[in-house]
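REQUEST FORM: STRUCTURE PREDICTION
Request ID: SP-0412
Submitted by: Lab K.M.
Chain count: 1
Length (residues): 339
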Amino acid sequence: MIVWQSNIDLKPWNTFGISVRAKWMVTCTSLEEMREVIQDDRWKTLPRLVLGGGSNVLFTRDFEGVVLVNRLQGIRQVSEQGDQVLVESAAGEVWHSFVLHCIQKQWAGVENLSLIPGSVGACPIQNIGAYGVEIKDVFESLEAVNAESGELRSFDKATCQFGYRDSIFKNAEKGKWIITAVTFRLFKTPKWNIQYGDIQKELERLGYSEPTLVGVSQAVMNIRQSKLPDPKVLGNAGSFFKNPVIEADLYESLLQEFPSMPSYPAGPGKVKVPAGWLIEHSGWKGHRAAHCGVNEKQALVLVNFGEATGNEVYDLSTQIVNDITQRYRITLEREVNIL
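STATUS: Completed
RESULT:
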């Protein structure tokens, strides 16, 4: 039986730790409960929001609608053929717990995505990625319920239209579906991706002469913990900005003035520039503005020191965006969903 709660403080439900109130909140643990909510007049007539881990959202005001918390649980092996294993996870599972489950089962493919906050259901919306791996690399399909009709539909990889931290669920189909389960294509023989960042160095420091699933996962966790603040200690939503993709001609021009500016290939005539480098080399790293600031270890991360409002954080991000545009003729795009 579902329980409707009113006037709920959302501070425990978002990793930024922003205190705003939701007019209504309801937690769903089954598809049947979701469909019951969808038929309710409050859901039909008010603004609505689906929350998993609340790790990619910045609340700037009270939410005068219905917050549906997705808590569908369960992980199962769908099939196994040769070296490949199809694994389905309910959308309400904690992403890192799912990663650890796969490692325990010796299913490779998601170990580089260890310790990313949030839920399984949120990962395809954002096409989350880290250390050379993105969800699209291991994605098979997902199931989602229509937020208007309750109809259940399957989406394959092509239909999801994955891009860099992007998918159809952030564009044409935004707000129209509630993801209920995601199926991944994993492997019994790992295909190591350890050249990105300091994974190889950390493996050596940990005493691994050859990579293992446990070793790579631990290396990634150690690196993340050394650079990124724990949301339970310091409110944040991870990387606040996307790494901008710019024209190669603009990059070559910028190199004349900023010869140390790094880049990565991003398709014909394009390069990707690390947003963290731009922010740090503009003097923002460690900057503090009242109750919020830029993390002192990773300039991509904006933090709440305890009493910040969403508007304070957003205003700080706007100052950074404007400064980067003025300095480099590059427009940063926020990765976090602003509400």
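NOTES: The first strand starts at residue 4 and ends at 9.
Reviewed by: T.R.
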